Amino acid sequence: AHRLLKLAAGAASMALLAGVCLLLAASSATAPTSAGLILRTMLLGIAFTICFPLAGMGADAAGIGRGAVYAALQAAGGLANAVGPIAAGKLGESVGDSTAYVSVAGLCLAATLGILTLRRRAGRP
Question: Which of 6, 7, 23 has the alpha carbon at shortest distance from 112?
Answer without folding.
Answer: 7
